[in-house]
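Need the bound structure for magnesium ion, inputs here:
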Amino acid sequence: MVLEKLGQGIQEALRKITKAGYIDKNVIDDLAKDIQRSLIAADVDIKLAFDLIEKIKKRSLDEKPQVGITPKEHVIKVVYEELVKIIGIKSEISLKPQKILFVGLYGSGKTTSIFKVAKFFQKKGLRPAIIGCDVHRPAAMQQVLQLASQVNVPYYAPKDMKNPIEILKTGFDKLKKYDIIIIDASGRSSLDKDLAEELKKIADFAKPNEVLLVIPADLGQAAGEQARGFKELVGITGIFLTKMDGTARGGGAITSCAITGAPIKFIGVGEKIDAIEVFDPERFISRLIGFGDIQGLIEKAKEAELKPETAEKIIEGKFTMNEFLEQLKAMQKMGSLKSMIGMMPGLPVRIPKEFDMDKQEGKMKKWSYIIQSMTKEEREDPQTIDVSRVKRIAKGSGTTEAEVRELLKSHEQMKKMVKMFSGGGMKRGMMARFAKKFKGF
Ligand code: GDP
Ligand code: MG
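Answer from helper R.:
Posting the output first, comments after.
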């Protein structure tokens, strides 16, 4: 795995969380320390790592977990979200016909990466071709030739031409039937004025849709400085970070590139032509964290949305059709009303079978339609729903009058029950405990 050590460090830190009895400040402080240590070992800037763990601490302790998420899952989610934020934004790879100019210093992995990208586009059903413009190193054109014969990508890389613009002119002409033209520009051992000028000339002539900078990840944080330099001097639209395999410093490379605002588009994870990955911060972090179902957890959090205001109202004993509808929606996703009732200590009443919703999805849907067919006043005060209104609501929601009446009756029962837990029926301490638990759903 890319960034194995960092991944292991974070996984271990999170495993401690899942083992802890409950989440408190000490547990979170420990977690923060472990994560900070792992980040710094991966060459992430100290201040960046510090800011990150401060955010993790604050959010883990201050935020209420969403509906359906346990406090521990909440912490994992916070760690995941904050890590995603510091490694950049997801960028789309255009699959339209286009020209891509590759820039980068000697030995960064430019030519190898060009072939990787060409292969990537081929797999997407496009027809890429390569123009070799590295006129300074004698072996460069030979390398293009060699790789091209291995992977079967058309190319134009004349050995005897020294003017990149001439090469481009002929190259574009020869390769005009191809969808994606990838240009391998010259490198240097450092980004100097000469290189910047040459690259600018090439860019002016080629008018590329993308200028991808190739940087080796083993530079660690220095990758960011290089990205900034190229961005200022020649302009880049994205980064191809190579050699992410076998370097412990990739964390520094990724985060320092992310700070420059130039999106990392691809990462190289080996010498072979298929060792390429499209860089997707969410996927990258969920793999790094390695908690199998982190995506599932994030989905769950997105879906289950019993609004805190609703919970508050129910706890206060308010339970109009609006709260009922909110509940129905949340229940359709996760049966939260049932689990809420299940959590009640010493519940004095049996749960009416209508609220055992597991097998009654159809009914829940119908009930949602019925409530949605009510006017604002009817929802607030269902007492005003008389026979003619029942008729109207049944028609409007495509249900029967009997079904509307059943809903009204169930709501009435539920309301009484809610009053009982929120009012006198329960001891104060019990209520407080429940309220806390319920809010922390
Ligand atoms: P250029 O001078 O920028 O064109 O770089 P090359 O494409 O010639 O690559 C330089 C060296 O880096 C070669 O030995 C490549 O095999 C190696 N290389 C390129 N990308 C990767 C990568 O993602 N992982 C590893 N391990 N090696 C890579
Ligand atoms: Mg090269």
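Comments: Confidence is low (pLDDT under 50) at residues 334-351, 424-441. The longest strand covers residues 210-216.
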